[in-house]
Amino acid sequence: MLQTVIPQGYAPCLNLYDTQKAIGLLKRLFEDTLGGALHLRRVSAPLFVEASTGLNDDLNGVERAVSFDIPDAGRDAQVVHSLAKWKRMALYRYQFSVGEGLYTDMNAIRRDEELDNLHSVYVDQWDWEKIIAPRDRNADYLRQTVRTIVSAMAETQHTLRSVFPQLTALPPLGTEVSFVTTQELEELWPDRSPKEREDAWVKEHPVTFLMGIGGALKSGRPHDGRAPDYDDWTLNGDILVWNPVLERAFELSSMGIRVDAAALDRQLTLAGCEARRELPFHKLLLEGKLPLTIGGGIGQSRLCMLLLGKAHIGEVQASVWDEQTIQACRDAGVILL
């Protein structure tokens, strides 16, 4: 069934050539701004990891990783879903200190992703991770970091608008962030779906950090799924903005303060993932050997969509689409890369 919807009367702000130029500039600007603001160093990251290490992210627990064998190494590998756990291990191995962090280009294949305006089987993110002190494992530190990231996005947009005046037709991204919890949204709109709650809140609060994702709410259901072994479900969230082209809430980043030994122990039990305790990464964490960290992923194509005013993610990245999506975009004059 076709999931793609092109808004009536949609016309891109930039032509194909200017779009490609703007994507390159946007990525360079944002990387530099984010790295400077959060004290992050760029590192190289893997496209795939060894399956037996437990380093791959299982997302909601049902997505299948793209797997293959490496005969000469005698190993089975998986294309990453994300680098949530790999980054923390890298900080440990590279001996980073408190207050220091890393960022990297993360490229992934999520074969089971539903294809629509926002989702592709190809995922590109700026993955980042930073070591924090025990005193920083709190909501105030999380909120402060969110504001820093949003400011970096707004600064990038400001420069883009000066280089490509066509983009001034889009509303500027505000830097005032609304903070709300998933439980508060459930209590406001108990009869609505999580997505409908997000749309209702973000329409009135155009830049929002939605906190507390992964754990069960009072209704007994979580707002959304989140793996039990990287974010602390009480200290995480999503950066959501109002997308004026699609007229809906739009997730730009999933992030949070990561689990310590106690939180991992608790969440593995709640999620019924006891077997993971024997994996190398999880054993190090439960033994208190890994650093305390905060981190997340920021969608590269998502940020390009927002700041360049695009209606479909295929306008800013090259991927594979079903025939119905291709035809719908062709009929609307939307060029898929």
TrEMBL record:
Q: What is its main location?
A: cytoplasm
Q: Which UniProt keywords apply?
A: Amino-acid biosynthesis, Asparagine biosynthesis, ATP-binding, Cytoplasm, Ligase, Nucleotide-binding
Q: Which GO terms describe its molecular function?
A: aspartate-ammonia ligase activity; ATP binding; catalytic activity, acting on a protein; transferase activity
Catalytically driven reaction(s)? L-aspartate + NH4(+) + ATP = L-asparagine + AMP + diphosphate + H(+)
Q: Name one GO biological process term.
A: L-asparagine biosynthetic process
Question: What organism does the record attribute this protein to?
Answer: Flavonifractor plautii 1_3_50AFAA
Top-rank taxon of the source lineage equals Bacteria
Protein name from the UniProt record = Aspartate--ammonia ligase
